[in-house]
Amino acid sequence: MSVKTNKAKASATASISAVAEHAGVSIATVSRVLNGTKAVNADTRARVEAAVGALGYRANALARSLMRGETRLLLVLVPDFANPYFAEIVKGVESVTRENGYGLVIAEASQTLSRDSAALDSLYNRMADGVISLARFADLKPLLQEIPDLPWVACSEFVDDSDVPSVSIDHRQAAIDAVQYLLNRGHQRIALLSASEDYRWARQRHAGYEFALRRANIPIEPQLVRVARGTDYVHGMDAAGALLAMEQPPTAVFAVADTLAIGAIKAFRRVGRRVPEDVAVMGFDDIPVAQVFEPALTTIAQPVRELGAAAAQLLLKRLAGGASESLTLDHALIVRASA
Amino acid sequence: MSVKTNKAKASATASISAVAEHAGVSIATVSRVLNGTKAVNADTRARVEAAVGALGYRANALARSLMRGETRLLLVLVPDFANPYFAEIVKGVESVTRENGYGLVIAEASQTLSRDSAALDSLYNRMADGVISLARFADLKPLLQEIPDLPWVACSEFVDDSDVPSVSIDHRQAAIDAVQYLLNRGHQRIALLSASEDYRWARQRHAGYEFALRRANIPIEPQLVRVARGTDYVHGMDAAGALLAMEQPPTAVFAVADTLAIGAIKAFRRVGRRVPEDVAVMGFDDIPVAQVFEPALTTIAQPVRELGAAAAQLLLKRLAGGASESLTLDHALIVRASA
DNA sequence: CTGAAAGCGCTTACAG
DNA sequence: CTGAAAGCGCTTACAG
């Protein structure tokens, strides 16, 4: 029986040595029964398990991680907690990480995010085994250079000239589909309500919008393109206001996010314009409120849960030493009432 | 210059000994300039800083935390990522933790959450310095017993016979205010759309509803009380359906969550009932969509950001050794169009 | 001001 | 099957 140095370590959680002492074995043995890593004699095991129970012992994750070289924690970078779209993706991520025994560290990756963020700083330093980023491309880029050796996976966003794999739908094609739908319904003056093009997806949806129009021989009218200052409902209202002021307003609006679409509809309604009779409005994302809102939103549905789940799987696979290739999932056009 | 044992540690991040070697000092000195904990000679400091820069060194947070006895990580338990109400609270939490150099580990605390969750399991074991819980009281209770020595703070929920401080509005009083408002508008048949009473707040709002009715000498009609099977929009629709089937339906509905209220309105609309003309609907929370929805929601606003921020402050104060007393913040009745 | 050494709580070859 | 010991990468008395 070994001699313990610090016997009365206050009320603090029992350590492995306390368990060893209690069971009359070495800490190595305790470790073995805890991890099932090596055969242990039946009654030795029983004694250890009894000691664990008696002391309410739980291995200190910090020490364990330090030795194992992994924390089983994944960092998730989201641009905005409040956007339901991101929340759904996180749910997808969570579903697979939970199954695999990983925890999630979530940080809001705003523009201001940088090395001065002590929180993130601590994470970079081996607190997480890898990161899943939904952050704006513009925010992501500089971060990548700072923390080169952590495995990254981008979700919805991506970084072309890098080895960061990504999981996403084909934003450009989805936008083409949306605009084509509007064209098919006879619209010729179609406005684009875009989001900050710090988001790669915003840029790509914008490209899809222009492509679809050009393909239909409709000239791009710069005034019909409005960039919202955020993705909250109010930002959609504001941006739509500008459209309202035009002498020849659009007959249809393609918004790159449902939140923006809903904000726009609100703005239109306020001045007595009916949707879709006077203006058709298409959204993007198919967030939960899209179907209960009135008029219910015609929108592009992203397989959000799957997006998150796939990103998590990709990262886990990579952590397990596997190769990681990017993935493109399918989108779908959901026709409801707003367009 | 000391001899390094493991020289070619692959590409892995530089360790403190690598920095020490590079700068020609001991690791103790490196630690001191890193932490500014003790005076260091100016040019020694310069040499160390140069080495840190050259090697791109960042302290290993795991080892550091193990020594310091703190991780500067806080665990946030949310019942549902998808509910905008919780998202806003998390934003409040994040604003203060970020300022204080703390990171957030977020886990979804569903009913199924238990010791089999490897993710949470690792957290309990000293991965987080404390926890802020928005979890259902019913889920929270058993967890508390498992991890007794972590400092907890409950937000919106609470645990009466424990030393867990909480930050919340007065849910019961808020419900009384809501129902009284409805009564003042002449309603007599007021339904309650409640949420799972695993949530303490649901139970309290329910109590407030009954109190207000009784105070007005209106008998409680059990059929007018419906418990939704969740807090998503669809759950509100479902629960409202039952109300619709009544021979003498209510003239007003008080929903304990905006999501539920919106779902109910949708259900009413589907069968041609107008809100608020045929049925008035009141919500609770004032989530972002409440004001853009049509009809805009009359609701009880909770100071969500403040709630989250206060919970974080309370926890931080406690971690700093301070005392922790519970806090009740003010709610507000927002009159818009739905009631 | 600086270094050698102990120690945080674990895991894992290495012997036996 | 089991233990003594080294080591993960740090921080911090203890000497000097």
UniProtKB/TrEMBL annotation, chains A, B:
UniProt cross-references to Gene3D superfamilies, sorted A to Z: 3.40.50.2300, lambda repressor-like DNA-binding domains
Gene Ontology molecular-function annotations: DNA-binding transcription factor activity; transcription cis-regulatory region binding
The keyword DNA-binding belongs to this UniProt entry's keyword annotation: yes
Domain of life (superkingdom): Bacteria
Domain HTH lacI-type, residue spans: 14-68
UniProtKB keywords: DNA-binding, Transcription, Transcription regulation
PROSITE patterns (UniProt xref): HTH_LACI_2
Protein's UniProt name: Substrate-binding domain-containing protein
Source organism: Duganella lactea
Origin organism lineage: Bacteria, Pseudomonadati, Pseudomonadota, Betaproteobacteria, Burkholderiales
